[in-house]
Amino acid sequence: MTLEDVAKRARVSTATVSRVLNGARGVRPATQARVLRAAEELHYTPDLNARSLAGGQPRSLGMVVSNIVNPFFLDIFRSVEARARQRGYDLIVANTDYAPDRLASSIMTILGRRVAGLALVVSETVPPVVSTIAAKLPIVLYDGGGHRLKDVTNIRANYRGGMQRIVEYLHALGHRRMAFIGHHTRLGPLHERREAFLSIAEEYAPRSKVMTVESADGLAGGQEAMRHILDSGFKPTAIACVNDFMAVGAVRELHVRGVSVPGDMSVTGFDNVALSEFAVPSLTTADVPRETIGRLICDALIPSAGEDRPLFRTEMVVETQLIVRESTAPPRSRSVRQGQRRTATASR
Amino acid sequence: MTLEDVAKRARVSTATVSRVLNGARGVRPATQARVLRAAEELHYTPDLNARSLAGGQPRSLGMVVSNIVNPFFLDIFRSVEARARQRGYDLIVANTDYAPDRLASSIMTILGRRVAGLALVVSETVPPVVSTIAAKLPIVLYDGGGHRLKDVTNIRANYRGGMQRIVEYLHALGHRRMAFIGHHTRLGPLHERREAFLSIAEEYAPRSKVMTVESADGLAGGQEAMRHILDSGFKPTAIACVNDFMAVGAVRELHVRGVSVPGDMSVTGFDNVALSEFAVPSLTTADVPRETIGRLICDALIPSAGEDRPLFRTEMVVETQLIVRESTAPPRSRSVRQGQRRTATASR
DNA sequence: TTGAAAGCGCTACCAC
DNA sequence: GTGGTAGCGCTTTCAA
After folding, report:
1. What is the pLDDT of residues A175-212, one digit of tens each?
2. CB within 8 A of A340, min separation 6: which ones?
3. Which bases of chain D are under 7 A from a protein CB atom?
4. Which of A45, A311, A322, B63 could be disulfide-bonded to A165 (CB atoms 3.0-4.6 Å)?
5. Longest C-alpha distance within chain B, in Å?
6. Which chain B residue is nearest to residue A325, measuring alpha carbons?
7. How far apart are the first and last CA of chain A?
8. Rounded Cα distance, A123 and A133, in Å
């Protein structure tokens, strides 16, 4: 089923069919109708590969994310996709599962589709080749953490500020022994987030004791990290998690062990994904505005009407906001009792 | 950066470069090395559009899902993707958000990419055009519900059986007044699921009273549906939800109102997504084996070694399994007290 | 307003 | 082993 088939049936040339299908003006209404009808009757489906090979400007964007299962990344994806669609672009996603080697190959795959722009929403350290690509293609890097890239639009959330508000809040509640649950310490950006927690905890509570634990990103990872903490002998009264997703897993482990939240222990998340509001107890967290981020990403990749290239900015920072919910409270005066495990009914 | 650039630099023809890059045998090692180095030095990225235009068999699969945010669909997606990748294919996804008109356009878009096969993992009624397509392309329909399509591999989970085990279990616990929370009644397949609940509830407890409520798929939808039930005056002792995702929202609403689960009310989910295990309380649910479904989908789309077309089967049914966790218990002898709301601290 | 034809970058076939 | 080259289906000049 090709353009030519449609052309034959409508008794016009392929050029005319192409014009009609692309909404070009300057085609006689009668001809147009004939073409449309022919295409309809033949169930014609344009070959997008041929189209983008032949065509001028590409009409798709590419995006690489670290963990599509984490609702944070999923929300960003959906936000970018919605806005892109609105502007006539579609979005190709690739997922790395935090595997550094999959980052490079994902970038290649997407570039192979000849996209108009590329968004890297990843926690991994981006390969140097990206700078080279940036010369020919608008690139956005979200959460590059430490390293801002030249010629690339760097968008980041003020994680340090958010973490500061969280620690400050916990401190104000009276917490002095805290722990941090993170993941993949080796990855630059995430490492930085952990450091933020450490230095801020230090600043707000010089006498405070802290520990940090890392596990895989996800519900199971959060649970496992909490298990480590509880088994370590260190008895914090509050736990700050790197994101909501892991926090839900952490809360689950506390539930299994009969440690009440926030009665016996406070827990905080980060991101303010929908789940944080529906969890029981709902999570105190820091809102990272995913809608805004998606919008900024799109605007940095798609040229606005009349422009040739999208407006380039080196760096943009979005603010985070403390959201207080049920998972935090002042610590009990007596220390949290440990080891009062009950049968772990639902853990595997 | 094209094949020709690489060819020039390596002082060979484009044909040879193509051979090397596609791992064909019969190229002198020295030549091969030269080509590889040239490609490397130029940061050559093959144009996938041109490749699939020119090439023989397409190496990608397409898939349409109803709601990528629902972890059930996300798991299926990941399962199919993993297996496809393993067999050298990649996966293009489109998401409809349950909008029937987006189903048709999603199918067009994917077909436009000239995929080797198409999986429809949707709750919407599929358009008739699908039968036409099936003549040229392997198609899998998951959860077509009522209508099995001819010439299409129909995969479905035994929802009725799962629902039966759930209702049976609730009945055995002593529940007689139940409600069902679903979504999008108008959509064929989902309607059927609700009917299954009704008829089974009828069968197991002839004297039982039931009500059904529909809302949007998702956490917020589950919460809203539960709100309707609680405000309706009908006081069930157990609630069966169409999926885990909505169940978590339902449980949240009960928590907000101070109704304890499972003390005052039992709740069940469906699917057994990871979240159901990490929720507080964890959910009694029916496992729908998403890994298996992903495998079946792939195998119905990709020809096995030596074959020309994948093995065609009209229908395959996967079984569901009851998973008992914390969210269900016998009803209290006294009726559930209603309206003892406490301040809804975190609802908006 | 429409048609003819030149590519887009690649693969695959046929020569050498 | 390697090169030449004919398309794949489409968009886009350039002519008519």
Report:
1. 999 999 999 877 666 777 788 899 999 888 777 778 88
2. A257, A258
3. 1-13
4. A322
5. 88
6. B346
7. 53
8. 19
Q: Which helix (H) or strand (E) element contains residue B52? A: helix B48-54
In a domain, B326, yes or no: yes
3-state secondary structure of A84: helix
Q: What percent of chain A has pLDDT over 90?
A: 74
* Nearest CB neighbour to A345, from listed B108, B274, B326: B326
Kindly list the protein residues whose beta carbon lies within 7 Å of any strand D atom: A 2-4, 14-15, 18-19, 21-22, 46-47, 50-51, 53-56; B 11-16, 19, 26-28, 30-32, 50, 53-54
B114 in a structural domain: no
Does A189 lie in the same domain as A332? yes
CA A159: distance to chain centroid?
A: 14
Asked whether residue A84 is domain-assigned, the answer is: no
Closest CA to A327 of A169, A210, A215: A169
Q: How far is CA B277 from CA A15, B107, B248, B269, in A?
A: 58, 34, 11, 11
Residue A328 and residue A184 share a domain: yes
Number of neighbouring beta carbons within 10 Å of residue B172: 10
Span of A39-48, A135-144, B48-57, B188-197 with lowest mean pLDDT: B188-197
* Chain A residue with minimum CA distance to B110: A48
Taking the C1' atom of every nucleotide in all shown strands and the CA of B55, the nearest one is C11
Q: Provide the β-strand partners of residue A27.
A: none
Q: Which two tokens stand for residue A151?
A: 């010629």
The domain spanning residue A11 has which CATH number? 1.10.260.40
Q: Which CATH number is B266's domain given? A: 3.40.50.2300
Rounded to whole angstroms, the distance from the CA of residue B15 to the C1' of nucleotide C15 is 13
Tally of domains in chain A: 2
Q: What is the pLDDT of residue B145?
A: 57
Same domain, A202 and A334: yes
Q: Do residues A35 and A178 share a domain?
A: no
Tokens (6 digits) for A331:
């610590």
Any atom of strand C under 7 A from CB of B346? no
- In this complex, which residue's CA is closest to the C1' atom of nucleotide C7? A54
Domain range for B258:
159-288+322-340
